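Title: Request for sanity check on MFS transporter prediction

Description:
We are preparing a figure and want to confirm that the structure record we downloaded matches what your pipeline produces today. Could someone re-run it with the sequence below and paste the raw structure tokens into this thread? We only need the token string, no images.
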Amino acid sequence: MSVRRPAPTAALRGGAVGATTATLAVAAHGIGGGGLPDSAALTLLLAACAGVGAAVGGVPVLSRSRWALLVALAAGQSVGHLALTLAPDAHVHHGVPALAMLAAHAAATVVCAALILTAERLYGPITAVLRAALEPPVLGVESARPLRPRPPSRRAPRLAVLAAGLSRRGPPVFA
């Protein structure tokens, strides 16, 4: 039985799903009329979104498919909304139409998916450019040869600071 390895961008996708889900859940919740969360709701939201991000980054099926990304983000928005409404001292939806809140969370899901897919598409070219820019230049065939290790020195290492302050002269000899 072969085990599928995660995509090279699996960690990127998982982290991005967790971070953008939390950020856009708060934004969509506020735009939909829910208001800003207090510290307890924010803590619960961050824990829930970290779990969603870890699941997306760790499960190979979720780290490869566009539809799985959209489903994971929708689940993350649902979990985010639930975390924002379950926290102690959470707000109550006073006269806020459920349709506006649902539309704000759906729009946040689509925006998150577009941002993450764009980042994944640009990941390969950007890392190739960075590798090319940060690698030392190869000047010729001779410089590409592996260097031979230097044989160890038989002399004990001497620090310049200690050598300047130490004298090898002993006390005078009286005969």
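Thanks, this matches our download. Residues 159 and 165 are 10 Å apart (CA to CA).
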